[in-house]
Predict the 3D structure of the following.
Amino acid sequence: MSEEQKQSVFGIEKVYVKDLSLEIPNAPQIFLEQGSPAINVEVHTKAEQLGEGVYEAVLTVTVTSKLEADKVVFLVEAAQAGIFRIQDVPQEDIEPLLGIACPNILYPYVREVVSDMVVRAGFPPVVLQPMNFEGIYQQQKQMQSAEQPATTH
């Protein structure tokens, strides 16, 4: 088969929860508190090659709920992972697939895991808002290029 005839492959092999934690440091007293807690959401992505044409992408979401400035209501951290097959794709397209397409696939799963965990902990559900992984990827690329020292010729 010639190079032109090879079909690019991008597929999901497995989607799974890699790590999941819930902390309610001020239980049971926190359940008696009144007020609307502030919710903070942090999102991190990472990817690594597992073998020839096989990659793991991990999307980690940390949700912290606080009353006032320092009283933690709950903290949930979920690492949703997937194993993806990426073959016969140009090398320059692999990184964007891992940084944009894979997190887009994993995000609905991690949204459900976070919401379910919060409800099981006895709190109203947290519905994570849609994310622009392309924008996040572009910001990361800009930060990386800004951190690299300029080379002189």
About this structure: The longest helix spans residues 91-120. The beta strands are 9-23, 38-51, 54-67, 71-87. The mean pLDDT is 92. The domain at 8-127 is CATH 3.10.420.10 (Bacterial Protein-export protein SecB).
